Amino acid sequence: MKRSKVSLLAAITWLIISIVLLVIPGSDIPKENWLTAIYFDKWVHTGMFALLVFLWCWNFSFRESKTQKLKTVFLQTAIAAIVYGVMMEVIQSLYIPGRSGDVGDIIADTVGAWGGYYFSRWRFIKK
Do residues 57 and 116 make contact, with C-beta atoms less than 8 angstroms apart? Predict the structure, then answer.
């Protein structure tokens, strides 16, 4: 299988996994006091969104060769991930039992998205 197809499959798969993880009812999420103490939830959000942006940027790196266009696409990807994170927090607060929207999660999503963006620029854009 070509790497461009693998990268697209990986990005779509991770998007689906992130959707599933973000819509799990609150009663199905384990409650551990020590995990709360180390802000584990925020680290998970940061990692999820960094990986999400990275995988989509990896996919786009096979489809575009012009540096300036790739920078723009990577930036759009990060912004789309941030919007997605905000929307998922709204959905959690309105529609998912036992879940609530959390500004801290939005901040963690944003940090992760920017981390994925900057790592992707470093990794995929030739200077």
Answer: yes
Does residue 47 form part of some domain? yes
Name the residue range of residue 57's domain: 3-25+37-124
C-beta of residue 57 within 8 angstroms of C-beta of residue 74: yes
| 32 within some domain | no
For 40-109, the DSSP string reads HHHHHHHHHHHHHHHHHHHHHHHH---HHHHHHHHHHHHHHHHHHHHHHHHHHHHHSTT----HHHHHHH
With respect to residue 107, please indicate whether it lies within any of the assigned structural domains.
Answer: yes
pLDDT digits (tens, 9 = 90+) for 19-56: 998 988 865 565 666 555 556 788 999 999 999 999 99
Q: How many domains does the chain have?
A: 1
Please name the residue that has the structure tokens 């939005």: 106
| Closest listed residue to residue 80, CA positions, set 122, 41, 110 | 110
**Closest residue by Cα to residue 85 from 117, 118, 108:** 108
Whether pTM exceeds 0.70: yes
